[in-house]
Amino acid sequence: MLENVFNAVAAFFSNLAQSLLSLAKVLLRSQWGVRLPAPQQTRCSVLGNGPSLNDSLANHLDFLLETELIVVNGFALTDYFTRLRPANYIIADPNAFTFHDATTGREDLHQILQALITQVDWSMRLFIPNFAKGSYFIQQIEKGNSRIELVYFNPTIIRGFNWFCYWLYTANLGMPQAQTVIVTALFLMINRKFDEVFLFGADTSWHEQIRINDDNQLLIKQVHFYDKPKDVAFMPVYKDAHRTQTFTMASQFLSLHKVFRGYEVLREYADYRKVRVLNASSKSYIDALERVQLVNQSVGQ
Questions:
Q1: 42 lies in a domain?
Q2: Domain residues for 78?
Q3: Is the distance from CB of 172 to CB of 35 less than 8 angstroms?
């Protein structure tokens, strides 16, 4: 009994401290008055870049085309970009907004930027964090393609009492910790108030591709749906730009914990906003979201 009281008091003061810290971050970092566009349809599909997306594109393309599409990060590097002509694109990688025309080592960012400027001949929204304003990436988009509408969001991490978090989430002043762009995408679509949000290509199986070499370096093989697995090698994951030390196994699994905890927070928030978030990925380790299988253009449990 005494231990329960102690835990409750500790939880209260922990939430109080986190709420006050989150409020301070909002006041310092967030842009006020953010408005997200209304949904164009009642259903949307968020496409992650995991290998299982190949199954969904092969077997459920008609379903996808009947929903409002949201793609993320490197999707513009694929042939499906111009085939699907997605109405929404989300880039959350901070590196995209710190690079410039002379940056080396991130050829993918140059290719994504070039694809957005030269290939998008339809109306498309590009969702980017508020700190991206004025970056080289955004300047090139603004000069190079008037069909792309820029939509800014606040990536400020909010923690604390649920009622406090939901108040700031709903006001678009911050979001749960988004360890992956999919968490960001789902959060934004929940706030746009779709009736149903379908998730595809969210394998979340990075732990299957972790190795430790003889020098105790952490190696990961990151495979996307557009990669040929045999062409992707295990690569060290470095902590700093100087590439002197890799992340530890403990830090890597802490990062994975944050990923899965983010989905749990999203599920609770989606219930609060009365939005169904449905994981239709053919392979996925996400246990926080309701799983569904698409059968003959319909959803079956």
A1: yes
A2: 2-200
A3: yes
